[in-house]
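Thread: "does anyone have the structure for this chain?"

Original post by V.I.:
We have the sequence but no experimental structure in hand. Need at least a predicted one for the grant figures.
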Amino acid sequence: MNRAFTISFDFEGRTYLAFASMNTKGSDVVYSVRLYDEKLHRIVPTGSISYNSQRPLCPHSLTHPMATRLFTCINEAVDGHSRMYKSR
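Reply from O.Q.:
Generated one for you, C-alpha cells below.
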C-alpha cells in the first residue's frame, strides 16, 4: 500500500511542513519525507529522509549535530499521522 500525506512538526521554535509518503513492503513500512524549507537543508543536505518502521533511526548519512533531534521531530509527526489514520 502506498500513501502520501503532509506533516507538520515543531523544531527549534518553528513549525515546518513536509511531504511524507509510506510504502508497505510485507510487515515493514518505508517512510520518505521531503523537507521543503531550505533552512533545514543545512541539517539534511538532500532535503529528504528515508527510513523504515523496523528501525526508525536517524540515517547515518546525516552527520549534523542537530540531525537526531530533527529526525525525532519528523518521526513523531509521521507516527502521529499513522496512528490517527489507523484509528479511523
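V.I.: this helps a lot. The CA atoms of residues 30 and 73 lie 17 Å apart.
O.Q.: and The radius of gyration is 13 Å.
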